[in-house]
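hey all, quick one before standup. I had two proteins in the batch that finished overnight and I want to keep them in one place so we stop losing track of which output belongs to which input. First protein below, input sequence then structure tokens straight from the run.
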Amino acid sequence: MVFFFFITSFASSVASPDAEILLSFKGSLQNPIFLSSWNDSVPHCTWVGVSCQLGRVTSLALASTSLRGHIPASVFSLSTLVFLDLSSNALVGEIPPQIGQLKRLRQLSLSQNQLSGEIPGEIGGLTHLRSLKLGLNSLTGEIPAGIGRLTRLDTLDLSGNGLSGALPVELGELTQLQFLDLGNNRFSGHLPGALFTKLQSLTSLDISNNSFSGSIPPEIGNLTSLVDLYIGTNSFSGQLPPEIGALSRLENFIAPSCSIAGPLPDEIAGMSSLSKLDLSYNPLGCRIPNSIGQLKNLTMMNLVYAELNGSIPAELGSCRNLKMLTLSFNSLSGSLPEELSGLPLLTFSAEKNEFTGPLPPWFGKWTQMESLLLSGNKFEGRIPTEIGNCSSLQHISLSDNLLSGEIPREICNAVSLQEIDLNGNFLSGNMDEVFLHCSNLTQLVLDDNRLGGGIPGYLTDLPLMVIDLDSNNFSGSIPVSLWSSETLMEFSAGNNQLEGILPREIWKAGSLQRLVLNNNQLRGTIPKEIGNLTALSVLNLNSNFLEGSIPFELGNCGSLTTLDLGNNRLNGSIPDQLADLGQLQCLVLSHNNLSGEIPGSLAELTNLTTLDLSGNRLAGSIPSEFGQCSKLQGLYIGNNLLSGTIPASLGGLGSLVKLNLTGNQLHGSVPTSFSNLKELSHMDLSFNDLDGQLPSTLPEMLNLVGLFVQHNRISGCLDQFLSNSVSWRIETLNLSHNMINGELPASIGNLSVNT
């Protein structure tokens, strides 16, 4: 009897119409490996993701099961379905209108798929629905008005689609709605005040990243249950309505980049539960209101790029829970009020303002501070020693101020310091032992100051990744031990008075990506071991006293994007191996004593934008292969011993802006192909042996403002050459010391011409 009952139940299961629908659903999908248990060997109510009551399917929970394909209309024949979750899959196509058949459905989630098309109006027939989630798809069109019939809905998520149009006033009928997310769509128009009149149960509202316009309606004050409000990145106008102060339960008000103007209403103090306030990137154009000090629960306030003026109100010091205060890129002025010293701040950012006066010693009370960013102001005087009391400080930026005096050794009492940026001040003294105890320091930026003395060897013992000492008065040689650093990625010490040589030990700095030592007094040769720095992307040794040949091992530095060896005493030929630097964008070898021919293989550097070989003793002809360097914007090979004709292939350099071939021994005529150089602004062919006539098409180069061809043997008639120059933007034209005749036409305007 038991055996007979089992057979009967099993046969009944297989014959169930729900089972047939589910198998049909499975069959419509592409390789549904997560549904392998769906087969007629076991009852359908035991299948993965399926729940039943009395043998009928009531729940289908298949989120994140790698489903691919269209949703078949047949699945909506599961008439007893209460819960349907197909979210986080790869379902495509439109939502079938048959979805309206699921009259008992309470929860529907199709979010995070690739569904397209419009939301079917039939969805308004699901009157038992409490949760509707269609976010993160590619749905388009407007919200159907029928959605207002879903009066039991408490959650509606349509975010992250391409929905457009105005919001239907019918949304206001969803009086039980608690969560409404319409963010990241293309909605437009004004916010209907009626929308906020009845939604008094709403706790979270997100309409961010749309194109809403008009003012924020005062009816927003009716949303007295609201906890989260996100309205950023829209095109509103006007001010925040005073009624917003009625949102006493609001904890998060995130409204960046939505064109809100000031002044901020004093009623903002009524938002007594507010924890996070973000009004950044708005044209507030006002002062920070004193009433903001009444927001006792405030933990984060972001007013970056808000066109604020005036001073920081002392009342802000009453926000005793404030941990993040960002006021950068405004026009705030005055000194920092001491009342801020009692705040438990983790981050204080006030960069690019107009603050003045000395840095206050009470900074030392900020023992929890992690980031102190005050660059781009007018602070003056010394760096207070008390800053060493900020035991949690990790990042300090005081760059571009008027600070002077020595850097206090106490700064490293802040043992957590990882990044120090003091560039662009008037700091003096030396670095002896100043940073010796900054045992966690990874970034030290001191460029553009008045620091002097030697570069201390103890820097090697710190975990430094970036050292920037540019534009100071450092002298002596670079400690050899520095090249043994396993962490150093950037070392810049250009525009100093450093001496000595680049040692062979440089190969040990295997992590080095940027080495800038231009404008110093380095001597000796470039060690061939530099070729072991395969991570190097920038090498700038310009304006030193380096001699010898360019090591061919540089061709091993395959990550190089900038190689600048100009203004030295290098000799020999340009090594062919430089053509192996496929990432190179800027190559400067100018003003050395290089000889031999220009390697045609340099044309293989297809990413090159600047090539400067001027001021050497290079001979031979200009490689015609250079015409292949399609990204080249600047070609400077003047003042060499080049001969032959100018290759016509250079006319194919469509991105070229500046061309300088002056001071060579080039002959022949100017190629007519040069008229194709539509981006060219300056061309200098002077002091050569060019002949023939200038191409009549040169005036068609509308971006050309400077043309220099003096001291050649160019002939022709001036008025004929300039007869079509009405639209020519040329500003300086030097044709002197040639064989050109004729007079200037009247159309030439205010052109400066030397004939």
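OK second protein, same deal, sequence then tokens:
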Amino acid sequence: MSEAFGDGSGGLPCVLSEDVTAFMTDPTLPPWAMGPIVAAMVEIGETRGLVAASTAAEDWPECRLLPLGEDGALGIVEYVIAKDSVPPQVIVTRILLY
């Protein structure tokens, strides 16, 4: 469960883009990938997108990349922190598996 932040709120919902939804429901998605992807999404939501291992785009700091697996060996999750949207949320925009 999400812990409260200093402003009294918890994490942000982690929403999937249409492309990521299609990716996640594709029957050819390797079974080994599901656990790390879901774990990453939980961590993204609970930390409001500010996952310690993520990196921000220089020109668009709301857009972040999070390595999957140890040292990113499994792939990358790309997401956008939409804190000013109603309701605030984190949108997973792309998942790249290696």
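Flagging for whoever picks this up: DSSP finds two helices and five strands in the chain. The chain has a mean pLDDT of 91.
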